């Protein structure tokens, strides 16, 4: 058989000629070879290096649109979720069309609110947006058909919003609906020192407890928020102090029933309020949220003293719902009309000028015309300056939904009649000509005025002068409407600057913990603020190693960190080792 080669090699070394490079020479040459770096296309989508494409899978690169419905408690939850997402690197946008994911924070009190929520989900799906739902609707009824396949954040799981959003962006469905407990005892909810983006940088909403002690037959919120669970006094006081250090000048205390605060942890509302009052700086104010009559009755003397304090608004929201004892019994409200009147009469006598706001439900099942007229007489007697009138809506799963319903036309007419009565009187006409001290905190809906409140939490519109925002000033009242007064600042009066420090900018993250501030590595750009260091742009290599301090208990993030580290290595390799910041 012929050979495969013309000549036979005796040894493998015969293929190396004298002119070839020796091994040590090859190593020297290799050290002088420079890899060619692949350059990005500078015209791709006209995006800058620090704004990755919207469909990027790099954590924190997406845009999130957040919509919240409902009460102050729900709004506070929405602010906390926005703060955590922004702190992690996501961009919170006001433009729903440009967002990659919609976070919809729902309210279950009335049918119209849930209808808006359901329609928003449908619209998001039509626009091919990722969707995460939160709030009381999915917490109370997670198995509804229109929620199938959607990620859900429970009302006590808002501190895990980053995890849920990331998994949703990957195409997964995540549902976190559990309760937070400590040694088997239910807690008030997520920590109060989480990052937060206040809708109004001058106003801090603090939830002092979640849930309630009642079992009202019409209430769906109870199914979502559950029984009473209060935050410790110390934790609430610390949150208030932190807020004032971040430029806040007005604090709202909120919950499903502030009057019940502390009954589950061996304290009470007056004890908390006296501690909070000690922290309020001159020129700042505290507003107390809604309380039901049964629990405030026990503390009337102390509450009157607190509401007379110059740094506490003389304002209280006490829902009566109906002036018929038979209707209140069917509602299981646990008080009678005489109890409500006792609270109102006592506070009006002991706190001169106090504003009492209340709620009324028209057309509750079994409400007769005589029952309704009792409610009309109550409104005529007290002429409430702030009255929330609600037509009854049967909520699924509540006892009231199974009761004999008042005809829709009758409910509608009673709602209309009570509204006409409310608009027949002017609560502020007698105040024209007064000189009042007001705290300016926001802009009016028509953008023509700034909105301030006097010591009774009555709305006063003042000129749109930027120097007034966040200040306590004196004004002369020159006009009154149904829901407001108008005031002209007094030129020679003293102006109080309530804030201890400069307020955070709109959209700026508050409440970053020390661990989080020091997590980014060298090369991070910082946005300076007197009370917090907030990362604006963080290298990818820093984010992949970061475990959020408020989520360290979850083992899932450890796996996530490893996955992100592998992803980062691939990205760095792809870009040829360039120092690319995202």
From TrEMBL:
UniProt subcellular location: Endoplasmic reticulum membrane; Membrane
Keyword flag Metal-binding: yes
Reactions catalysed: N(6)-L-threonylcarbamoyladenosine(37) in tRNA + (sulfur carrier)-SH + AH2 + 2 S-adenosyl-L-methionine = 2-methylsulfanyl-N(6)-L-threonylcarbamoyladenosine(37) in tRNA + (sulfur carrier)-H + 5'-deoxyadenosine + L-methionine + A + S-adenosyl-L-homocysteine + 2 H(+)
Keywords: 4Fe-4S, Endoplasmic reticulum, Iron, Iron-sulfur, Membrane, Metal-binding, S-adenosyl-L-methionine, Transferase, Transmembrane, Transmembrane helix, tRNA processing
Primary subcellular site in the record, as a coarse category: endoplasmic reticulum
Listed SMART domains: Elp3
Annotated PROSITE patterns: MTTASE_N, MTTASE_RADICAL, RADICAL_SAM, TRAM
Cofactor detail note: Binds 1 or 2 [4Fe-4S] cluster. One cluster is coordinated with 3 cysteines and an exchangeable S-adenosyl-L-methionine.
Listed transmembrane segments: 556-576
Entry annotated with the keyword Iron: yes
Top-rank lineage group of the source organism: Eukaryota
Cofactor field: [4Fe-4S] cluster
PANTHER family named in the record: RADICAL SAM PROTEINS, THREONYLCARBAMOYLADENOSINE TRNA METHYLTHIOTRANSFERASE
Family the entry assigns: Belongs to the methylthiotransferase family. CDKAL1 subfamily.
UniProt protein name: tRNA-t(6)A37 methylthiotransferase
């Amino acid at each position: 058989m012929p050979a495969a080669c013309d000549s036979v090699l005796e040894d493998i070394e015969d293929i190396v000629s004298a002119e070839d490079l020796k091994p040590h020479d090859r190593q020297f040459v290799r050290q002088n070879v420079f890899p060619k770096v692949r350059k990005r296309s500078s015209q791709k989508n006209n995006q800058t290096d620090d704004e990755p494409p919207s469909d990027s899978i790099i954590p924190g690169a997406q845009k999130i649109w957040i919509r919240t419905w409902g009460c102050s408690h729900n709004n506070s939850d929405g602010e906390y979720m926005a703060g955590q997402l922004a702190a992690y690197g996501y961009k919170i946008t006001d433009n729903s069309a440009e967002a990659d994911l919609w976070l919809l924070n729902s309210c279950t009190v009335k049918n119209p609110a849930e209808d808006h929520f359901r329609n928003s989900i449908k619209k998001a799906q039509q626009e091919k947006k990722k969707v995460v739902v939160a709030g009381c609707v999915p917490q109370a009824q997670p198995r509804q058909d229109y929620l199938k396949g959607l990620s859900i954040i429970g009302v006590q799981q808002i501190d895990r919003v980053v995890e849920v959003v990331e998994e949703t962006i990957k195409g997964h469905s995540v549902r976190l609906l559990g309760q937070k407990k400590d040694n088997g005892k239910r807690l008030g909810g997520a920590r109060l020192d989480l990052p937060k983006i206040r809708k109004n940088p001058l106003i801090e909403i603090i939830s002092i407890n979640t849930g309630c002690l009642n079992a009202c037959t019409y209430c769906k919120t109870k199914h979502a928020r559950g029984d009473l669970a209060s935050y410790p006094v110390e934790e609430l006081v610390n949150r208030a102090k932190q807020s004032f250090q971040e430029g806040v000048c007005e604090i709202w205390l909120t919950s499903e029933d502030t009057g019940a605060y502390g009954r589950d942890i061996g304290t009470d509302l007056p004890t908390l309020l006296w501690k909070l009052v000690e922290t309020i700086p001159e020129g700042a104010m505290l507003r107390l949220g809604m309380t039901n009559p049964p629990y405030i009755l026990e503390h009337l003397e102390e509450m009157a003293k607190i509401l007379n304090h110059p740094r506490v608004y003389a304002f209280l929201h006490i829902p009566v719902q109906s002036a018929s004892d038979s209707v209140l019994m069917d509602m299981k409200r646990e008080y009678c009309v005489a109890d409500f009147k006792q609270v109102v009469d006592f506070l009006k006598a002991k706190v001169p000028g106090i504003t009492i706001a209340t709620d009324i439900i028209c057309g509750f099942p079994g409400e007769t015309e005589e029952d309704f007229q009792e409610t009309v007489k109550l409104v005529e007697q007290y002429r409430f300056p702030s009255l929330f009138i609600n037509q009854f809506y049967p909520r699924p799963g509540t006892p009231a939904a199974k009761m004999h319903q008042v005809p829709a036309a009758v409910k509608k007419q009673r709602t209309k009649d009570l509204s006409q009565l409310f608009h027949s009187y002017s609560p502020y006409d007698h105040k024209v000509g007064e000189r009042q001290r007001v705290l300016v905190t926001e802009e009016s809906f028509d953008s023509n005025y700034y909105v301030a409140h006097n010591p009774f939490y009555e709305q006063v519109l003042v000129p749109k002068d930027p120097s007034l925002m966040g200040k306590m000033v004196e004004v002369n009242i020159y006009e009154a409407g149904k829901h407001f007064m108008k005031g002209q600042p007094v030129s020679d009066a003293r102006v109080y600057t309530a804030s201890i420090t400069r307020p955070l900018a709109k959209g700026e993250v508050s409440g970053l913990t020390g661990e989080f501030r020091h997590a980014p590595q060298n090369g991070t750009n910082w946005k300076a603020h007197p009370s917090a260091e907030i990362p604006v742009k963080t290298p990818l290599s820093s984010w992949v190693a970061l475990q959020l301090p408020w989520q360290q208990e979850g083992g899932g993030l450890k796996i996530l960190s490893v996955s992100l580290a592998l992803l980062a290595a691939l990205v760095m390799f792809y870009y040829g080792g360039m120092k690319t910041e995202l």
